[in-house]
Amino acid sequence: MPESQPPALTPPALIAPEPPVLAPVQRRTMVVLVIMQIIGTVGVGVAPSIGVLLAGEVTDNEAWAGLARTASTLGAALLGLPLGNLAARRGRRMALASGWWIAAAGGAILVAAAQWNLIVPLFLGLLLIGAGSAVSLQARFAATDLAESDHKARSLALVVWVGTLGSVLGPNLGVPGEIIHRATGLTVFAGAFFLAAICLGLAGTIVFLWLRPDPLLTLQRASPSTTAPAGKKPNPVRRILAELRENRPARFAVIAILTAQVVMVSIMTMTPVHIAHQGGSITLIGLTISLHIAGMYALAPLVGFITDRYGHRPTVGAGILIFLVSLIIGALRPDGTGWIITSLILLGIGWSFVNVAGSALFSKVVSPQTRASSQGGVDALSNLCGATAAFAAGPLLAASSFSMLSLLAIAVLIPLTALTVSRGHTPKA
Predict the structure, then answer these.
(1) CATH of region 20-227+235-425, choose from 3.40.50.10230, 3.40.50.300, 3.40.50.2300, 1.20.1250.20
(2) What is the pTM of this model?
(3) How many CB atoms lie within 10 A of CB 348?
(4) Which of 11, 223, 300, 301 maximizes the CB count within 10 A of its CB?
């Protein structure tokens, strides 16, 4: 019996605009997502700095520490697609809540790993806490489900932006961790992850209780064309690949998202190690990563406005230029603390321009039938590329220098730059 063919993808240009009656639901959705994102990203922000330092302390081996540093990013990659598929089946509320609770469990495991220097719980905890990164990323797509077509980038950027507070506070949880250490006897790192677990669990509870009605399910009910015909359940990976083969703007958006992630993660992950090798304190490392994360998120509303106003391709181009300035500084002035901090801030801003523009474009042009699964798949692939880049960056830094790492990151930008400049291969949007 011949295999049934999956339903044809609905061209984005033929999708009817969201009915005005959905506007109140969108406003409520944005309020819940904003509160959830602020609280949850406090827990997520622990991994890039305190998690990196804990990995070095527990393993006492650079090779193992490098693998541990990538564990949270790998966890986000492994869980991105399943959480996206869960959203497609059960809605955003169940997917986001489940992701935050998995991350909270990871945070709790890391308390034990930090307290008793346990290697296996360290890897498991970092792997599970990566679910927080996955749902934090998916929240930006949830903001676009019911947004008007010409406001999608701004809605997406707002959710990215509010993560600034949590993501900046997260790397500095070592400070309240010291208070918990004095009060309870937990180590500083264990106290930090204890607070992270509380924040992650609370974020899941908030979205589970109050993200009603569910934005994705509401969109599906309002637009029946957004769901596949009954009885046909094509493989989600196959459908995503078919989408990318047929949809050139979506392909460009994916390349932009992946490139930004590889460049940013490879440099950001190794910066705490580089500063520590130069004798920098945990306070300086936390401040540097906090300023970097502020660069990633603080200008997001402006980037969203620029994207909606001037188009996705010019915004990606601006991000590439900012990336180049950041990496040139890192290559030429790797030993100057002030220069490294400046480079990391610009690295975050460059990521913001490319990622916000690429994500908004993908959300706009992807077909309704693959919306949630494709978004989860792109985030999973993005985190997998980030994990690979972070893992490779460790040996590269050990074998060469921070300058060489910056030069290699510049080389990664070349394909995206060529696609952005070539009008024949990029969308007009």
Answers:
(1) 1.20.1250.20
(2) 0.78
(3) 24
(4) 300
